[in-house]
Structures are given as structure tokens and as C-alpha cells.
Specification:
Radius of gyration: 21 Å
Low-confidence stretches: 3-31
Signal peptide: 1-19
Mean pLDDT: 90
Keywords: Signal
Number of strands: 10
CATH architecture of the largest domain: 3-Layer(aba) Sandwich
InterPro entries: TRAP_TAXI
Protein name: C4-dicarboxylate ABC transporter substrate-binding protein
CATH topology of the largest domain: D-Maltodextrin-Binding Protein, domain 2
Structural class: alpha/beta
Shape: globular
Pfam families: NMT1_3
CATH class of the largest domain: Alpha Beta
Helix content: 25-40%
Length: 329
């Protein structure tokens, strides 16, 4: 499907050129520089290289469109959304749930009120709820966690927030575990492999360093988080999406694992020039094979999902124009 969509985009471009007289690029337009800054996350995380991949692709064709793209490290989604609101960034990578809350003025953004100028551009990789069990713990499904020792993570962490959400969907509480520890991410793999807990819970993109650490120290299994309760949860929560962790990423886990989670999304504001956003979206989507090769977390991206999933704020006009041309929305 990816090749069909990209072929359609190239056909549209060719048709536009041949429909009239072929005109050489205007040197004045080609040389006009437009600067775009993308807020990401900490340099050791996944948002920073994802933003870097966007800028790398855009900067390769800078002579064609005049856009110079740069990434900026940051403290993550909430920081990025606040900076966008103040006009200190042009674009940012944020979690889809925080995109939703910022646009609606809920949760952490209740005091600031709705960010009505927030605009979605496209989605990136999934950040699924990931349940890692020791292979000998007898845990094959999420329901098998009842009565087990589970590290639920620190309060406020991404994994803990998503776990609380799914527990509610199953009508469970943490008291359904025989132990609910709150060890930080740096201690989870050791606790699992030392048989101090039976399973650990985290959230984030894959491949994950935390999961790789556990898989290198003991035999693990990734536990599916699926079923009717999860289907209802995802259906009722526009910031969530079904997710599949590919098989073969971790030692001893050859099969894919079904789960759900938030999406990493690229957002902007209504005040950013529509032609600039259009060119950046076009460059990424028409170069998607190159883009997905720039980092493992981007490897599974597909254009249809990028144009639709996790985008709870209105589409930016530039993105909307490209998606319409490419037949994606």
C-alpha cells in the first residue's frame, strides 16, 4: 500500500508539470530560506532521533524548497506544547494523549485553557504499553497477571498511567497483584531477572533499551494486552491506538505482540506557514523508504496510519493539502 500511495503522489506531481508549460524553478524562490525548529525530547530518548530524521530528509532537498530544519532537545511533550503555545517552536513531537489534552485544555493544561491554534501534522511510531514477564512466571495473557508480583513503575510514569487506564478497563486495581512495586526504570530488569517480581510494565517505542537489558539477562516473554475491554478502551479514547510490537526485536521473542498505546505525533500551530508544512510533509511521505531506514523506531511506519492515528487536534492546512493530494484522507 505504501508504494501505491507514493506512486499516486508522484503521478500527481508529474501531471501538474505536464498539464502546462514546463517552467524552470524561480531562483528567487529557490534561494528564499525558511527556518523550522522541531522540539523533541532528551537526546538519549527516541523523540530526538525521530526529529533528526525528519530534518535530515528535509535538509537534503533544501535547495528545492528553501527550508532549513533543526531539532531542539527538550524535556518532552508538555514542555514542547507550552513552547509551541508561546511561539518559541515551529513544530514539536508530542505524545498523542498530551496533544489531546492541550487542544481541549484538560489535565495538565486546565489552567492555560484550550490551545485552539494547535494543529496536528502526522503521527510517528507507537508508544505501546509493554508488559514483560519472566519466561518461567506462567504469564501468557494480561489476565494471568492477577495474583502475580508486578512492578507497576513510579507514579506519574508513562507505563504507570497506561497501566492504571487498562486496570480500570478490566475493573481491576493494583490490589489484584500480590505485589505492586514502584521501582524506577533503571531497576526493573534486575528485579525481573533476580526473581523479585514476575513482570514489569513500561511504555515507549521499540526497540527498547529496558527490554533489551532484561532479554540479555534472563529469558523473557512479552505479554499481549488485548481483548474486548482493550478494544472498548481504544474505541472510546481518540488518543490511543492499537499497536503491535514486531517479533524478532528481542532474544527469545520471535512472534509479534498485540497491545495498545499512545502515538508519537508531529504537531505545529495554525500560525506556521501552510506551504512550509506542506513541503515538509511531502518530503517525508515521498521519501518514506529513506525516512524509515534512518532509525529502527521508524521502521514499521505506514502512510495510512501516519495520516490518521493519534491526531486529535485539527490537521494543519499544509498537511491536509498533501494528504488530500495523496489520497490519504
Amino acid at each position: 500500500m505504501r508504494s501505491a500511495v507514493l506512486g499516486m503522489a508522484f503521478a500527481l506531481t508529474a501531471a501538474t508539470v505536464t498539464a502546462g508549460t514546463m517552467v524552470a524553478p524561480n531562483p528567487a524562490v529557490a534561494q528564499e530560506q525558511r527556518f523550522v525548529t522541531i522540539g523533541t525530547g532528551v537526546v538519549t530518548g527516541l523523540y530526538y532521533p525521530a526529529g533528526g530524521a525528519i530534518c535530515r530528509l528535509v535538509n537534503r532537498s533544501r535547495a528545492e524548497h528553501g527550508i532549513r530544519c533543526a531539532v531542539e532537545s527538550s524535556d518532552g511533550s508538555v514542555f514542547n506544547l507550552e513552547a509551541l503555545r508561546r511561539g518559541e517552536m515551529d513544530m514539536a513531537i508530542v505524545q498523542s494523549d498530551w496533544q489531546y489534552h492541550a487542544y481541549k485544555g484538560t489535565a495538565r493544561f486546565r489552567d492555560e485553557g484550550p490551545f485552539k491554534n494547535l494543529r496536528s501534522v502526522f503521527s510517528l511510531h507507537g508508544e505501546p504499553l509493554t508488559v514483560v514477564a519472566r519466561a518461567d512466571a506462567g504469564i501468557g495473557t494480561f489476565q494471568d497477571l492477577k495474583g502475580k508480583r508486578v512492578n507497576i513503575g513510579p507514579e506519574g510514569s508513562g507505563g504507570r498511567i497506561m497501566l492504571d487506564t487498562v486496570l480500570k478497563a478490566f475493573s481491576w486495581t493494583v490490589r489484584d497483584f500480590s505485589l505492586a512495586s514502584e521501582l524506577p526504570a533503571s531497576e526493573q530488569a534486575g528485579a525481573l531477572c533476580d526473581n523479585r517480581v514476575d513482570a514489569i510494565v513500561l511504555a515507549g517505542g521499540h526497540p527498547s533499551g529496558a527490554v533489551q537489558e532484561a532479554a540479555s539477562a534472563c529469558s523473557i516473554a512479552l505479554v499481549p494486552v488485548a481483548g474486548r475491554a482493550v478494544q472498548r478502551l481504544v474505541g472510546d479514547s481518540p488518543w490511543l491506538a492499537r499497536s503491535v510490537i514486531p517479533g524478532g526485536l528481542y532474544t527469545g521473542v520471535p512472534e509479534e505482540t498485540e497491545t495498545f498505546g499512545v502515538k508519537a505525533t508531529l504537531v505545529s500551530s495554525a500560525g506556521v506557514d501552510a506551504d512550509t508544512v506542506y513541503e515538509m510533509v511531502r518530503t517525508v511521505f515521498e521519501g518514506l523508504d529513506d525516512f524509515t531506514s534512518l532509525h529502527p523506531v521508524l521502521r514499521e511506519l505506514e502512510p495510512e496510519a501516519m495520516a490518521t492515528e493519534g491526531l486529535t487536534a485539527p490537521l494543519h492546512e499544509g498537511a491536509k493539502r498533501y494528504f488530500k493530494e495523496a489520497g490519504l484522507r
